[in-house]
Amino acid sequence: MMICRAAAALAVLALAACPPVRGPGAARVADQTVEIGRPGAALSGVAGDGAVVFAALTVRPPDPPSASPASPRGRAAAASTVIEALRPSRGATPIWRAELPGYGGPLVASGTHVLAALGGAGSVAGLAMRGDPGAVVAALDAATGAVAWKLAIDATEWAVITQLAATADGALVGGSFAGTLRIADKIVSSAGGSDGFAARLVGERVAWLVRVGGPGADAIHAIAAAGDRIAIAGTFNAGADLLGEPLLPLDERSSRSDGFVAELDPSGARRWVQSFGGKDDDAVAGVAIDAAGRIAVAATARGTVRIAATELTASGPADGLVAWWDGRGTALSAVLVGGADFDGLRAIASAGERVLVAGFYSGAIRLGNLALTAGGGDDAFIAELDASGAVVQAWPVGGDGREEVTALAAVPGGFIAGVAHTAAARIGDAALPAPADPTSGAAIAVRAAP
Question: Which CATH architecture has domain 54-61+73-85+94-409?
Fold first, then answer.
């Protein structure tokens, strides 16, 4: 149902949250739509500060002139990631551009640096990997793009970074691995097929590393920070634990995965953990901490899902799920977003006391007062929800082809979303022309906060 990122056109969208959250001296975005992109590139992450947008695009080498297909391992190893800093008000010309070996992952702006997650086999960003794939966090100077430091995150079998989050003194890293994971002088080993990991970086120093998992396949898919609070979310199977606290599945005998959400303190100690899910596999897309201190999780749920005493049933094969917990781990509101077809969520970001979610749908869907019908393929949307689960406003992302929100990040006065599209499309009221090559169209659209 989703677009292959390596074969999709790309767009970066910066839109205003409503109401905007703006501190003293925060940059103000201005209405802009700027075309960017290149053939064979896939957008993997976006970040920004309200005035400058940072985008990471993985550029894969062309297929070799051979009758046999290229080795996926070799293709991944040969890929490179281009990271650009752009000021949308000045057009598509980058302020700076840096290229690093490896395929791209999420980005985050943290202080004077932009942190990029990279992955691949053999060597990534010049660092040797033990497993296949391995991962690297690279810190680039936000003003110049110069690489300040690189940190290997690899395991004896494999390691993947799924999300980065900024803290006051560095960043958080979340992901999954198999085997024995090593980040600088910190080491953990998986208990089963795969486990999740979370680490706190203070500069390039690793303050702590924690593992979540058990005998099955477990992962951390999302991580977020606000002040001294850290939230993680992911999926697990029966027998998993987080720092000695068992994760309780909906059905001990089921082989299906459930979701979990937890809060850690600044030292990495567990404050609380809660689980949610149903009889079918559930997928976690993101976690956010809003200005009121609530922790919100975005997921894709199938069938009937239970969050504490609340049960919700998807309208079709799958719906998007947004659920909130308070600072003590008590479940609050929960809502499904979807229609009669296969729908779901891909990302979430905080917008003051509200949250922004990015999702996908086919067929028809209702978002607040908007009734939408998908065009030539899967369409996408960005919606703002209050803490009761009501849709306050929404930006449809649709057209004759396929559209997909590939990344979402909050910035002062608004947010940035990465969007892939294969034909002419519209993002809210901004028009994107059809690319000459369906794999190469790209744009940056900016909306000023009111």
Answer: 7 Propeller (2.130)
